[in-house]
Each structure stands twice: as structure tokens, then as C-alpha cells.
Write a structure and sequence with these properties.
The structure holds two protein chains of two kinds. Chain A is an alpha/beta fold. Chain A has two domains: 119 residues, Response regulator (Rossmann fold, 3-Layer(aba) Sandwich); 98 residues, Winged helix-like DNA-binding domain superfamily/Winged helix DNA-binding domain (Arc Repressor Mutant, subunit A). In chain A, 37% of the residues lie in helices and 19% in strands. Chain A contains eight helices and twelve strands. In chain A, helix 2 packs parallel to helix 3. The two termini of chain A are 27 Å apart. Chain B folds into four domains: 71 residues; 110 residues, Beta-Lactamase; 76 residues, Orthogonal Bundle (Helix Hairpins); 152 residues, Heat Shock Protein 90 (2-Layer Sandwich). Chain B contains eight helices and twelve strands. In chain B, the strands form three sheets. Chain B has a five-stranded antiparallel sheet. Chain B has a five-stranded mixed sheet with strand order 7-9-10-12-11, covered by helices on one side. A two-stranded antiparallel sheet of chain B has the order 6-8. The chains are: A alpha/beta, B alpha+beta.
Chain lengths: 244, 463
């Protein structure tokens, strides 16, 4: 059996090709906000900042932003109220909720209020960036695609067939789901937590790096025997299917 | 015995006072009835007799004239029956009868009069009460017919006095009894209040006084004491947990600090970077520990029972097995799963999956020995004695019988496991999740190895 790590390529830095987005950060903690804004700006995005709930709601209501990053607890108006008010006004901008509450039911509450993703504090910046960019793509994606392609790899969402360079690759249902998620985000980093949440729907930390094992199995199936490795490990961040 | 004005504010006393009022009212009504039927009756009878006599005399006067009634009056006046008679002329002079003159109390033409009567008994003059009916006859004569009612009045007075006394005694006894009862009650309530103050003051081992009579206050004290026992147990547990937490978090923090300090002493950029990388790693581990602690606390507090949903545990068993199977294979071992249908439970999918994944993770880590380096794990979901049972069995060293309770405590890591990564919280979380689901975690011998058994109540669906 070929050891999968031989295909691993490491991508340095996170500034991968992404469309520039205008992001509103609604966060009252000055340090946290400036750290966030610095990181987002360095990643090539434009940011606005609101330090309390009321200002945040007013700015978000103008509907000028691609993504809203909303802290759960804010002075004057809490994060969930802002999201509810926005959704009631018909503003559909994707929202990432940041919260110190990591409870599963807190997460459910956040999503029920109209949030699109939920990230518990503290988090790695790479995790936040991957999710923000994921939300941005979700917003602009064409929903009617039945085939996804990356280089010579192609998957058919209807027949569940996977081929690479015309060669059929048999995959387990979970492997297919994993590949589908990576392909939908081709060219972008997805973190281990994102995979665990979106492919397995588990919102807890399974301690051992189970995800790595699943990804390396998938890699051995789709990259083995091909010159060009498609599934890459991004050190300190996650994984990425190269969009060739 | 000292009077305590606090008594007047007690609910027992207020209750006693209300009872007393009702009691006094009913005693009063009974006594009034008695009075009406004794002294009152006699007086009414006397009045009726007098009226009948006046009527008869008036009729006689109309028929026979003055002479006709004078004889009758003279004759009756001579009788010793206590009768009082007088026929007077227009100037008030006696024509006949045993009354000397018209008493000054006569005001109206016709009506009742009460007046004192002086009677010669032997050498003494005696003043007595009389009651009479006075009426004017034709030709300006006046007629007075009455009775000596001295005895009647005295009888009435005696009855009235007796009734007052009876009422008074009833009131005093009732009031005294009420005060006494409330004093007794207040003393016991005060004892309970003092005990609770002492407990609030920090003496958690103090208990409410129990008198042993088994009355309501005793029942209250007993249940309060049971509550205090429970609180004390929890508090002791909490103290232990917090000191464990403090101890177990100090170690990695000390390590973290030492590393940063030594990096600061060096001047190499590479060393700075390495130290920062390590710091992030270490703080991630710390955060993981904190999250695990919070999850345990939440599960143990048993909140959010409404988050539990009717689900088939088979999906959870198969899902977690699927997640870990590649790892067992990677290690050269095996992971077999067997799940029966209809494992209906009321559960939180995330928490139950997490608990099961902790067990499988443990089995992968500790289910290997020197002679048996590859993990062989069996996961089984089945119905057993009306419960849903999930088993995770390995072929490792197992846990000695005497350690099986201890390992459920937070941060407990057996010596054999210290060399492997982990925070000693995995089984605590499983136990906490089981508590939230009304189930239990049993650790059994798999000869060899450990068999962890989750027992959950079967959920009967409504359909």
C-alpha cells in the first residue's frame, strides 16, 4: 500500500486566490476586532467595523456587504436580534456568528435566528477565513450544477460516478460526500472542523485526528497513480482540492 | 413568661384570632338565644297577663261603670300575688287599689311604665321594681294594672351576668390558647430560622431541628435536611472538581510559561517561532480541556432536556463506527459493528455521538497491549431487558475492578495511560451524558480487555 503522505504538498500562507469581498465586522471587543480586520485586510478583503449592535444593524441594513461577521454578545443590541431584524427587513447577506458560547443548542439558536454559520471563540484565524470565504462562495454559487470538475477529476452528483482522466474511481458513500464538499470548495481551504461539521454533521471534537485518516484514504483513491496530486494538505489550516 | 410582641404577627396567632372571633360570635348567639328563652320569656308572659287584665277591666268599666271595677280592683289588691292596682280620679287621687298615687313616670295616656315600689315588710321598707300598664278610662279616670317584677328582674340580671361571664371566659381562654399555640409554633420556626442562618453563615454541616413528633414542621425540617445533604454532597464534589481543575490546568500553564521564558532568553528567530508554535498548540489543548469540562458540567446539570429527540441509536452507532473504522485499520487492527434495528432512544444526537466516540477513542488508545499491539474493537447496539444497550469492547489491558468507579472522575488517568495523549475527561463526559439521558455507563471485564456498556431507557414512540 502506498503511503499517502508522499503526495502531500504544502501551501504556504493563506492568501489564496479569492474574490475580494466587502465584510462588515460587528464586534465590541477592540482587540478582537482589530485582529480580525487586520487578518481580513491582509487576505485581500475590504472591511467595515461597527462596535455596537445598533450601529451594526444600521450599517448592515444598507445591504452593501457580502458577508457579516456578528459577535453574539454586543452592547445595545445582541447579535441574534440584529440577525432577526435584518432577516425581517429582507436583508439576506450571509452571516457568520461568533460566540464564546460553544454549546450545541446555542449554535442551533444562532442558526434558527437566521445565521448561516457559527464559530465558537476562541478560533484560529485560518478557520474563520475559510468559513467566511465559504459563505461568500455559497452566496454566488450556481445551484443547478450536476457535475463538478477539478482538473481531470470529475464527479457526477446524480449518478454518483467519479472519474479521473476517464478512469472510474469507486468510492464509499462517505468518501463521495467528502469529495463532493472538497470539490464544491475547490481552490479554497476547508478546515478539519468544517469537514466534520458538513460531511459528518458532528459538532464536537473527536480528539484523535480522524478526519486526517479519512482524507488520506480519499487521497490514496483519487491521486494514486496520477502525476498531478489534486488533494492537498495546507499546513496549520486544512485541506484543499486544487482548482486547475 | 415574657410577652413577645412578635407573636401578634405570626400566622398561627392570626388564625387563632379569627377562630376566636368566630367562636365568640357563636357563643354570643347561643347565649342570646338562652336569654330570650328564659328571662325574656318570663317578662313577655307577665306583660301578656297584665294586658289581658287591663283589657278585662276596661271592658267591665264600659259595661258596669266605675262601681263595677272598683270592687274587682279592691278584691285583687287585697290578694298577695304581687299585683299592683290603682284607679285614680282626674286629680290623681286614689279611688281604689293598692298603689298610693299615680307614679311620676306616667307621661302618655296609654303605655308601659317601670317604676320603683316601696313595700312595707315587717318593720322595714323595701324598694322593689314594678312594671305596669297605664290607661285612661272614660270620665277622666285612670287605670294602672301592674306586677311586682323584682324577682323577675333579679333572675334576668343573674342570667345576663352568667352569660357575660361565659362569654368573657371563652374569650380569655381562646386568646390565651392562641397565644400559647403561636408561641410554641414561633419557637420552632425560630429554631429553623436560626439553623438556616447558621448554614448561610457557612456552617454547611448544620441541620434543621427535628422534634420527632412527625408533624408538619418536622416533615418540613426533614425535607430541608435532605436537601441540605444533597447540597453538601454536591458542594464537596464541586470543591474536589475545582481543586482538580486548578491542579491539572496549572501543569500545562507552567509548561507554557517556562517555554516562553526560555525563548525570550534566546535571541534566535527560529526559536521564537518554535516557541510560539508550541504555545498555540498548548493553548489549543487547554481550550480543548476547558470545552470538555464545560460539556461535562452541562450534561451533568441535566439542563436542556428539551433538546432530546426521539432517534434510532443504530444510526449513531453506525455513524461513529464508520468515523473510526479507518483508524483501526490504519493501526492494523479491526473494528466490527453490529447494530439491531429499533434502538429507539430519546437523545441528543451530538452528545450521544460524542460519548460513543470517546469510548471508541479510548478503545483505540488503550485497547492494545505489548503482546497484542493491534486494536480489535467490537461495537454492538442491541435491546436488552427493555433497555437500549451500546457496547464498546476491546482486547486491551482493561481496567482493574477497584479503579472502575474512580476513572469516571474528572482528570483521573490511570498510570498505564499517562504515556498516551488525553486529558482524563473522556469517561467523565460519557458518564455525564448518560446522566443527562437517564442512562448509565458500566465498565465491565471483557476477559481480556474492557467492555464499556451504555444502558439507555428504550423510548416508546407515540405512533
Amino acid at each position: 500500500m502506498q503511503v499517502s503522505t508522499s503526495h502531500k504538498t504544502e501551501s504556504q500562507g493563506l492568501g489564496l486566490a479569492t474574490e475580494r469581498m466587502r465584510i462588515l465586522v460587528i464586534e465590541d471587543d477592540r482587540d478582537a476586532a482589530s485582529w480580525l480586520i487586520k487578518g481580513l485586510t491582509e487576505s485581500g478583503h475590504v472591511t467595515d467595523h461597527a462596535a455596537n449592535g445598533e450601529d451594526g444593524l444600521a450599517m448592515a441594513s444598507e445591504n452593501l456587504h457580502d458577508i457579516l461577521i456578528v459577535d453574539r454578545m454586543l452592547p445595545k443590541m445582541d447579535g441574534l436580534s440584529i440577525i432577526r431584524a435584518l432577516r425581517a427587513k429582507g436583508v439576506t447577506t450571509p452571516v457568520l456568528i461568533l460566540s464564546a458560547l460553544s454549546d450545541v443548542d446555542e449554535r442551533v439558536k444562532g442558526l434558527r435566528a437566521g445565521g448561516d454559520d457559527y464559530l465558537a471563540k476562541p478560533y484560529a484565524f485560518s478557520e474563520l477565513l475559510a468559513r467566511v470565504e465559504g459563505l461568500g462562495r455559497r452566496n454566488s454559487q450556481e445551484p443547478l450544477e450536476t457535475k463538478l470538475r477539478a482538473g481531470d477529476l470529475e464527479i457526477d452528483l446524480l449518478t454518483r460516478a467519479v472519474t479521473r482522466a476517464g478512469q472510474t474511481i469507486p468510492l464509499q458513500p462517505r468518501e463521495f460526500k467528502l469529495l463532493e464538499y472538497l470539490m464544491r470548495n475547490a481552490g479554497h481551504i476547508v478546515t478539519r472542523t468544517m469537514l466534520l461539521e458538513n460531511v459528518w454533521d458532528y459538532h464536537f471534537d473527536p480528539q484523535t485526528n480522524v478526519i486526517d485518516v479519512h482524507v488520506s484514504r480519499l487521497r490514496s483513491k483519487i491521486d494514486k497513480g496520477f502525476d498531478e496530486p489534486l488533494l492537498q494538505t495546507v499546513r496549520g489550516a486544512g485541506y484543499m482540492i486544487r482548482a486547475v | 413568661m415574657q410577652f413577645n410582641p412578635k407573636i401578634l404577627k405570626t400566622s398561627t396567632f392570626r388564625l387563632a384570632a379569627i377562630y376566636l372571633m368566630v367562636f365568640a360570635l357563636s357563643v354570643g348567639s347561643i347565649l342570646a338565644y338562652v336569654f330570650w328563652n328564659t328571662a325574656g320569656l318570663l317578662e313577655r308572659q307577665t306583660d301578656a297577663t297584665i294586658r289581658a287584665e287591663v283589657q278585662a277591666l276596661a271592658d267591665q268599666y264600659r259595661l258596669l261603670g266605675l262601681r263595677g271595677i272598683v270592687d274587682t280592683v279592691q278584691r285583687r289588691s287585697a290578694e298577695r300575688g304581687g299585683g299592683v292596682y290603682l284607679i285614680a280620679d282626674s286629680l290623681g287621687r286614689r279611688v281604689a287599689g293598692n298603689l298610693e298615687s299615680v307614679p311620676p313616670q306616667v307621661i302618655d295616656e296609654t303605655g308601659w311604665i317601670d317604676f320603683p315600689l316601696d313595700i312595707q315588710i315587717g318593720p322595714n321598707k323595701q324598694r322593689r321594681s314594678a312594671r305596669a300598664f297605664h290607661t285612661d278610662l272614660k270620665d277622666n279616670y285612670e287605670l294602672i294594672v301592674g306586677r311586682d317584677v323584682q324577682e323577675l328582674r333579679q333572675f334576668g340580671d343573674i342570667i345576663r351576668r352568667t352569660l357575660y361571664w361565659a362569654l368573657g371566659i371563652a374569650l380569655v381562654l381562646g386568646l390565651g390558647g392562641g397565644l400559647l399555640t403561636s408561641r410554641n409554633f414561633l419557637r420552632r420556626v425560630d429554631a429553623i430560622t436560626d439553623a438556616s442562618r447558621a448554614i448561610m453563615g457557612g456552617n454547611l454541616s448544620s441541620r434543621m431541628p427535628v422534634k420527632g413528633t412527625g408533624d408538619e414542621l418536622d416533615k418540613l425540617s426533614r425535607s430541608l435536611n435532605e436537601m441540605l445533604d444533597q447540597i453538601e454532597r454536591l458542594m464537596t464534589g464541586m470543591k474536589e472538581v475545582s481543586s482538580n481543575v486548578a491542579h491539572d490546568l496549572k501543569t500545562p500553564l507552567t509548561r507554557l510559561r517556562a517555554r516562553v521564558e526560555s525563548a525570550l532568553r534566546s535571541n534566535s528567530k527560529a526559536e521564537y517561532r518554535a516557541a510560539l508554535d508550541k504555545t498555540i498548540e498548548e493553548s489549543d489543548r487547554l481550550l480543548q480541556t476547558f470545552n470538555a469540562l464545560l460539556s461535562i458540567a452541562r450534561a451533568e446539570a441535566g439542563q436542556n432536556k428539551e433538546m432530546l429527540q426521539a432517534i434510532d441509536a443504530r444510526e449513531i452507532v453506525e455513524g461513529v463506527a464508520e468515523l473510526y473504522e479507518p483508524i483501526a485499520e490504519e493501526d492494523g487492527g479491526t473494528l466490527h459493528v453490529k447494530a439491531a434495528a429499533g434502538l429507539n432512544v430519546l437523545a441528543d444526537r451530538q452528545l450521544l455521538s460524542q460519548a460513543l466516540s470517546n469510548l471508541v477513542d479510548n478503545a483505540l488508545k488503550y485497547g492494545v497491549t505489548g503482546e497484542n499491539p493491534k486494536p480489535h474493537i467490537e461495537i454492538e447496539g442491541k435491546l436488552e431487558e427493555g433497555n437500549v444497550v451500546i457496547l464498546v469492547a476491546d482486547k486491551g489491558a482493561g481496567i482493574a475492578a477497584e479503579d472502575r468507579t474512580r476513572v469516571l472522575d474528572r482528570f483521573v488517568r490511570l498510570d498505564e495511560s499517562r504515556s498516551k495523549p488525553g486529558n482524563g475527561l473522556g469517561l467523565s463526559l460519557v458518564a455525564g451524558v448518560m446522566k443527562l439521558h437517564g442512562g448509565t455507563l458500566l465498565l465491565e471485564d471483557n476477559t481480556p480487555g474492557l467492555r464499556a456498556k451504555l444502558v439507555l431507557p428504550l423510548h416508546q414512540s407515540q405512533s
